[in-house]
Amino acid sequence: MQNLLDPAILFFLFGVLAGALKSNLEIPPPIAKFLSLYLLMALGLKGGFALAQSGLSVSVMVSLAAAMLMAFIVPALGYQLLKNRVSRFDAAAIAGSYGSVSAVTFVTAMQYLEANHMSPGGHMAVALVVMESPAIVMAVMLANMLRHAPAGTIALSPSGGAAVASAGGLAGVPPLGKILHESFTDGAHLLLLGAMAIGYLSGDAGSAVMAPFSNDLFKGMLAFFLLDMGLMVARNFGAVRGQSPVLIAYASLGPLVHATIALALAVMLQLPAADAALLMVLSASASYIVVPAVLRYAIPEANPSLYFGLSLGITFPLNILLGIPLYTYFATSVLS
């Protein structure tokens, strides 16, 4: 309940309400883009400052290895579950979206943990970057395998009919190398990593100088951005209506399964509770910005309303409102 009374979360709910009421309230796209870049820059600086204090250690490398492992486990499980229930191209795209991560969910979780006097390691911002691209690679590779499957290979379409995979590939699809280059050099990734490097190099002196920017403004900027996200969620409710109950269940319950696997891994590796909570959040989140933008061109056979609508219309609000406090509770209960 405390999470729902947080001003940033209340602005998110207000945005959903305003969007549902068909209000003309909107955040201009350039402003929304700036807010996104600000949050990533501030997050990177915070992570760099924290990493400068803690230093690189075996525990840091173990946490990053766990994040990388989850980045492969989640899309593999998702594709196996969905491949015989929807078109296999749709299954690959959905698995890619859910195997990747949501930076906004991560930022909100960081704010929640700090408000509850928990201090995750600065390296977890690196985990955010580490978990973004493996799912894209897997989704693109699966799509290429489907395109070169023997003629007559049958997959279910979203409507339940048959879809035949082409034996000769699809004209106009960018080569894998170009797709991977775009995913690895995405501006948001580079900004996050660059800000983290700057924070690490500048250390305590940089932290003191940048505190008004990275700390004092952070909460208000996050609230403004979540207002915009609430408006976006409301606009995408329509894409969720009428979808298969299997997809609705996957978008609702899949994140809980992914978070449970992450918690089991954190227990095995004896990660700190705050780091484990963030690993659960990352594993349970789904990308609705970077990955859909890449998959729209990399897998044009897939239906964008499925992987975008499910991640933004169902998984994102569930994680923001309920998931973050739930994952934090179980992480602290098991590992504290």
Automatic annotation (TrEMBL):
**Which residues span the membrane?**
34-52, 59-79, 91-113, 125-143, 188-211, 217-234, 246-271, 277-299, 306-330
- InterPro entries, per this entry? Sbt_1 (IPR010293)
**Pfam families from the entry?**
Sbt_1
Q: Per UniProt, which keywords does this protein have?
A: Membrane, Transmembrane, Transmembrane helix
The identity of this protein, by name, is Sodium-dependent bicarbonate transport family permease
Task: Tell me the organism's taxonomic lineage.
Answer: Bacteria, Pseudomonadati, Pseudomonadota, Betaproteobacteria, Burkholderiales
